[in-house]
Specification:
By secondary structure, this protein is α+β, with helices and mostly antiparallel strands. It binds adenosine-5'-diphosphate and magnesium ion.
Length: 354
């Protein structure tokens, strides 16, 4: 079942004149995984809470499928939700925790046998069947989060909301759980997922599409590839993937960067306008080539598979990620960098102009 935000604005009491979510328009297709990606305080959790029914929009409507649920209480929305802090009941066993949501919702109707079956199914899906009779304190963080996911799945939701579900786990567990979530999604192809994270790796790995949030607003929504290849703002470019953001002046058929002419598609931006050129560090090469930039190496970092080179060019720094350098340049060397015209994206001028 799809999710649709129709101009949803949320303002918390006491934050007068300062909305937490501003006029959000966003559609999650049935069976799609949509990541809400943005820094802390950008309104991601607020958006999720509006879908779950824990906050009431000041204006706008929320739809699940064709149904306007804006006025429905949370327990009548048929939504599964997983939050960062597991939120398991410490005095209940794993199976009791998983059954809790079912009982709270369907107590009069679901038979004991049905509840037992659903709990077993959900624990099976999350690989926790063997832990049914343990208490939360007898589980690792990763296992507790699996139980929280099982509890959300037990109600067989059409929509699953996940709010930074992996951020309490250490890095290694996180990547394992990420693979688990991808598998769950394959097993539940009809369930729409809205996945909140501030971690671009999680968003890029898991999501069909990413909605980038900043300062209560949706900045851009697209497939990971679209956001990476065609960011529309400096914010998106730097938040998704990392980028060189070079202040340039637009000319005819190209731009001027620190006195160097670069041939890039100016896409109809008027001449003399200030703009920002976005080039991904791994698409910058060392040595002669088209769009050559000459500068001085200020720093070089070895990162295992690559070297990261920082090159000073007319008071700006250009980063290049280079593979397999046999004789890497050293601090103070003059070097040439280059990039292909099609690997650069011209953006509206922003913070990089100071
Ligand atoms: P995110 O999940 O992206 O970190 P939130 O949606 O939690 O952001 O918060 C968005 C904004 O709303 C922030 O400025 C935050 O301080 C504010 N906010 C969040 N929850 C409350 C609340 N219960 N009461 C008042 N302000 C809140
Ligand atoms: Mg949050």
């Amino acid at each position: 079942m799809g999710i649709r935000f129709d101009s949803v604005t949320v303002a918390y009491d006491g934050n007068v004149g300062d909305v937490a979510l501003e006029s959000l328009d966003l559609t999650v297709e049935p069976g799609e995984v949509m990541a809400l990606l943005g820094p802390s305080g950008s309104g991601k959790t607020t958006a999720l809470r509006a879908v779950a029914g824990f906050v009431r929009p000041a204006s706008g409507r929320v739809f699940l499928g064709d149904r306007d649920v804006t006025d429905l209480p949370p327990h009548r929305r048929g939504i599964g939700m997983v939050v960062q802090q597991y939120a398991l009941f410490p005095h209940m066993r794993v199976d009791e925790n998983v059954a809790f949501g079912l009982k709270a919702r369907k107590a009069p109707r679901a038979s004991k046998g049905e509840i037992r079956g659903r709990v077993a199914e959900a624990l099976e899906m999350t690989g926790m069947a063997a832990y049914a009779r343990r208490y939360p304190r007898e589980l690792s963080g990763g296992q507790q989060q699996r139980v929280a996911i099982a509890r959300a799945l037990a109600i067989r939701p059409q929509v699953l909301l996940l709010d930074e579900p992996l951020s309490a786990l250490d890095a290694q567990l996180r990547s394992g759980m990420l693979a688990e979530l991808a598998r769950l999604h394959r097993e539940l192809p009809d369930v729409s997922m809205l996945y909140v994270t501030h971690d671009q790796v999680e968003a890029l790995t898991l999501a069909d599409r990413i909605a980038v949030m900043d300062a209560a607003r949706l900045q851009q929504c697209g497939t990971p590839r679209e956001l990476y290849r065609a960011p529309k703002s400096e914010f998106t470019a730097s938040f998704v993937g990392g980028a060189n953001l070079l202040p340039v002046t637009v000319g005819s058929g190209g731009v001027d960067f620190a006195g160097t002419e670069l041939k890039v598609d100016t896409g109809g931006v008027v001449a003399q306008a200030r703009a920002t050129l976005c080039v991904r560090p791994h698409l910058v090469g060392l040595g002669e080539g088209p769009n050559r930039i000459v500068g001085t190496v200020s720093e070089i970092q070895w990162r295992g598979a690559t070297h990261r080179l920082y090159v000073e060019v007319g008071g700006h720094t250009v980063m290049a990620d280079l593979r397999e350098l046999k004789a890497p340049p050293v601090h103070g060397d003059e070097v040439s960098l280059h990039f292909a015209s099609e690997d650069a994206v011209l953006l509206p001028a922003g913070v990089s102009h100071g």
